[in-house]
Amino acid sequence: MCPLGRRAVGCNLASINVPRQPVGSSMVGRCRSRSERLQTKILVASGSQEPQTAEAEISSQVGPADQATTSTMKSVTGKTAADREEKVELVTTARENSQEWGEKAAESTSDDKAAKKHAQMYKQLAASRNRLSTRLSEANKYLSFMENRLEGSTATVQAAHDATEKVLLELGTLSRMVETAAAAVKFGIDKEDAIEKLVTLQSRIELAQQAVSTEQKALSGVVPRTVPVSWYGVALDVRIMGSFDNWTRGFVLSPEEMSDSVLSEFTAELHLLPGTYEVKFLVDDGWKTAPDWPMVVSSSGDTNNILVVD
Prior knowledge:
- The protein has helices spanning 25-46, 51-61, 64-187, 191-220, and strands at residues 225-233, 238-242, 251-255, 264-272, 275-283, 286-288, 295-297, 303-309.
- The radius of gyration is 62 Å and the shape is rod-shaped.
- It contains four helices and eight strands, in the order ααααββββββββ.
- Strand 7 and strand 8 form a beta hairpin.
- The N and C termini lie far apart (152 Å).
């Protein structure tokens, strides 16, 4: 309100002096003490003053209220430091445990990889062993079959050898009979005797021929024959298997020249002894029969082709 009253007109507010409130000494002291504490902290942070000396100076510069506040801050700061150390310790322990667990996990992973590798190697070795066992079994069967065939062939050759010796002796006797018959005819001493000797000679010659023919047939049974075979179809690998070697090895058929035709011809020449055999084609690991060949059902119920070698 204007000091001249409500009714005064044209009051100059600038000419009125309003008294200022003096700044209290307590406010100045607090500002000064805060400034000094800030300067002390700066000195401590820069390393120009020891923390204990700075703390004493700050304590001497602050009042009771500020000292209580400082004491509370110290206790809080101490707890915070303790908590910080505890947290640091927990983090360090967690890192050590994590590192240890990582190492164990790495070792476990390495052990798993090694175990898998060993298992794979074992499977490969087992598969190789099974293949070798199968091949060895087939080789043993083939060897046994060939031994039996060789024994039979040896017996046949031995019999032919003995028969040949007999034939040689018979030929020597026939040679002498021919000389006697020729002398009888030439000199004409006894014609009837000469005729009788010629008849006997003819009969002995016929018997010798029969013996030679029999032994020739026996020897022919141990002489292999060349038998051409062929198979038509689409395949990569064709093999003929059969009783001629006890179903062990067989013979591989080779493809002829490739043409535009879908079907290919696979051929081979088999060297087999005379006889009748059951055979079947192994086409890309699958059993097949030739539709244009004679067929028979085996004792095991399988349908096989018949191959006759004369």
